[in-house]
C-alpha cells in the first residue's frame, strides 16, 4: 500500500483510519493453540494508529522490493515468479468449502494462501502439477527466529500448559504446531488458493514454526520447478504412543499424505487420526530413481515408499539412560 498523496482525492487521515481498521483485523489473527496476538491486551487508539503506520511502512518496503524486481525482470514470466511477502498464519477462515479436497486440512497439509500473481506465474510459465513454491527467510530482514519450548513437542495430544483442559485439548483445531526437527531457512509447499492480498502470504502454523516466523515477518516466495520426485521418506513419530494408537500406520499415512504436495527434510508435519493430531519429523527424503538424499521432494503423483523410525521420546529416553550409566 503506497501512502503518496500527491494526486490523492482523500485526506491523509483517511489512510490512517483505513490502516487502523486493517491492524485491528490483523490483531485477531492467532495460532491454533498458540496465542500470538499482534496487540497485547487492550490497545489504545494511538497504539493502533502507531502499529498501523508501522504496517504501512512494512508494506511500502515490500512493495518497493517487488517493484524493483518487476522492473529488472527479463520477461513477464520471470516478473511474476517471485515476490517479497509478509507472512501471516493460515486460519480456519481459509478452510475450503464442504466437498473440496483440502477441507479440514488447513493445518495438516502443505497448502498456503498466495497472492494472485502466482496464479499468473503458473499460467505464464506453464508449470506442471504439482505447483510448488519456496518460502525462504531473508538474512538481515526476517526477524530473529522464534524458539519453541521443549514442551511443545512433548505430547501429540496437547501443549503442556493445556494438560488440565481435557475438553479443549480433545479438539484438533485447538492444537498448535510441534517444534521442528531442524531450524530451516526455506520450506516448500503448494497453493491452497490465490486470494491473499498482494503483499501477503498465509502459511500453516507448522510452516511458520519450521521457519521460526512471527506474524508479519517478511519472507521471499518463489515459484520453483526443480524439486525432485520422491522415492522414499523416513518419518519419526514424536511419541511412542503414536504407533500404538494407529492400527495400520501405513494406511493412515497413505490417506493423510495426499494433502501434502511436497516434503522438506527437518520439518515436523501433522496428521489427524480419530480426532487426535499426531506429529512426525521428516527425517530423510530420497529422490527417484536412484534414491539420492535430498533436502526436499515431491510426493504428489509419486510412488513414494515410507518407513517409520524409533519415536523421538523413546530415542531421548535411551540417550538419558546411556548418559546416566556413563556418569555412574
UniProtKB/TrEMBL annotation:
The keyword Lyase does not apply. GO terms for cellular component: VCP-NPL4-UFD1 AAA ATPase complex. InterPro entries: Ufd1-like, Ufd1-like_Nn, UFD1_N2. Residues 230-308 form the Ubiquitin fusion degradation protein UFD1 N-terminal subdomain domain. Keywords: Signal. One of its GO terms (biological process) is ERAD pathway. Residues 1-31 form the signal peptide. Residues 145-154 have a biased composition (Low complexity). It comes from the Eukaryota. One of its GO terms (molecular function) is polyubiquitin modification-dependent protein binding. Residues 145-176 are annotated as: Disordered. The keyword Signal applies. This is Ubiquitin fusion degradation protein 1. It comes from Seminavis robusta.
Amino acid at each position: 500500500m503506497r501512502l503518496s498523496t500527491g494526486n490523492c482525492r482523500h485526506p491523509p487521515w483517511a489512510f490512517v483510519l483505513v490502516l487502523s481498521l486493517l491492524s485491528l483485523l490483523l490483531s485477531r489473527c492467532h495460532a491454533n493453540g498458540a496465542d500470538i496476538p499482534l496487540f497485547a491486551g487492550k490497545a489504545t487508539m494511538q497504539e493502533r494508529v502507531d502499529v498501523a503506520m508501522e504496517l504501512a511502512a512494512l508494506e511500502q518496503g515490500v512493495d518497493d522490493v517487488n517493484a524493483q524486481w518487476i522492473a529488472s525482470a527479463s520477461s513477464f514470466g520471470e516478473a511474476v515468479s517471485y515476490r517479497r511477502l509478509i507472512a501471516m498464519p493460515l486460519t480456519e477462515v481459509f478452510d475450503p468449502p464442504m466437498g473440496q479436497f483440502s477441507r479440514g486440512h488447513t493445518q495438516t497439509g502443505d497448502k498456503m494462501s498466495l497472492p494472485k500473481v502466482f496464479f499468473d506465474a503458473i499460467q505464464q510459465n506453464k508449470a506442471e502439477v504439482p505447483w510448488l513454491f519456496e518460502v525462504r527467510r531473508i538474512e538481515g530482514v526476517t526477524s530473529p527466529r522464534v524458539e519453541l519450548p521443549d514442551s511443545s513437542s512433548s505430547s501429540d495430544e496437547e501443549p503442556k500448559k493445556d494438560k488440565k483442559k481435557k475438553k479443549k485439548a480433545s479438539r484438533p483445531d485447538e492444537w498448535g504446531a510441534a517444534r521442528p526437527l531442524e531450524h530451516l531457512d526455506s520450506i516448500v509447499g503448494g497453493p491452497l488458493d490465490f486470494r491473499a492480498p498482494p503483499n501477503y502470504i498465509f502459511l500453516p502454523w507448522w510452516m511458520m514454526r519450521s521457519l521460526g516466523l512471527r506474524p508479519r515477518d517478511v519472507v521471499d516466495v518463489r515459484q520453483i520447478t526443480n524439486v525432485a520426485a520422491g522415492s522414499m521418506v523416513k518419518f519419526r513419530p514424536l511419541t511412542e504412543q503414536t504407533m500404538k494408537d494407529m492400527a495400520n500406520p501405513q494406511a493412515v499415512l497413505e490417506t493423510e499424505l495426499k494433502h501434502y504436495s511436497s516434503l522438506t527434510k527437518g520439518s515436523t508435519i501433522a496428521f489427524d487420526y480419530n480426532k487426535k493430531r499426531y506429529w512426525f519429523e521428516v527425517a530423510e527424503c530420497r529422490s527417484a530413481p536412484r534414491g539420492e538424499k535430498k533436502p526436499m521432494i515431491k510426493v504428489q503423483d509419486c510412488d513414494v515408499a515410507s518407513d517409520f523410525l524409533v519415536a523421538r521420546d523413546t530415542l531421548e529416553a535411551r540417550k538419558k539412560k546411556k548418559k546416566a550409566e556413563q556418569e555412574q
